[in-house]
Amino acid sequence: MSQSHTPATEIEDEALAWVLRVHGDEVRDADIEALTLWQAQSDAHLAAYDRAERLWLLTSPISDVEPRPDVPNPTAENVIKFSDFTRRSQPSKAPAIKTSWVAAAAACLVLALGVPVYLTTRPVKPEIYETQRGETRWVSLKDGSRVHLNSDTRLSVRMARNERRLTLEKGELALTVVHDANKPFRVEAGQTALWDVGTEFNVLRHAGRVSVTVKSGAVSVTPATAKVMDLNTVLRPGDQAVVDEASGHIRRQTVDPAQVLAWQDGHVVYVDRPLTEVAEDLGRYFDRPLKVDKGAEKIRLTAVLPIDSEASVVSRLQAFAPIRVRVAKDALYLEPRHDDRPAR
């Protein structure tokens, strides 16, 4: 993400305006998408919004905050209500003086017995979902969104008051997201952050790459290591972005989402893919890895392969490609077939 040349105070004022806008009653999907693009301009923009959001939450009603047992409950005598403060702070006829939003927001912090509200809250404990090789799993989130975990996947979910954050540690998942303007939906996969607006999309984190494919809606893809603004990518239906985790480079292309999401129906689709890539991808589904012999590295494959069993994969590979599969205890070895007879 790039560094901003906009003055810090201007960014802070814009951040506060964005917080008030997205928490309003008339927020639209277009507003969330515009906010995503604004945040992607620089680290300073993202940090400023985070600070503004935290301060805004601290001015929310205390009844919405999880109390800690060691802090006394607030009473009418020791709580400054935000509504009271705003009534006392109506502008006079004199010219208004523009002040930093940080100072204004800090003045509005709700205090209970002199203890800042943030000390009475607890961090949201993540929920962990995972699958073993050969397994898939459906997960229904508290907001109504649905997540389908593919084989060998580990996912961490935090559903906070102001944000829904998923962290894909490894593997693949397909998401159907319920829109909530007041709770942005964020997926993190390594150094890649995805911001969603009521979308169906697929995320694969494997072999040093993060692949994002959109079926419907829009997703903003922001690699944390990106140095310039134009690397931030907003994907539409049929778009796919492949992010190299080491460099942050994004390769964008058009794909058929149905083919990418075919794993949900128990098979995978490869169209003119190098056999080495196919072997690497299939290795996610079974205990034994697939290793390609040097003589077969240049072979390309177009096929639909079931992933219900190792035996089915072996049979289909030999049917669709000029290879033999040698089964050993440690791996499945893909070797070139030098004659025209089918492998047995």
UniProtKB/TrEMBL annotation:
Protein name (database record): FecR domain-containing protein
Highest taxon of source: Bacteria
FecR N-terminal domain location: 13-55
Family annotation (Gene3D superfamilies): 2.60.120.1440, 3.55.50.30
Family annotation (PANTHER family): PERIPLASMIC SIGNAL SENSOR AND SIGMA FACTOR ACTIVATOR FECR-RELATED, PROTEIN FECR
InterPro entries given in the database record: FecR, FecR_N, Ferrdict_sens_TM
Signal peptide bounds: none
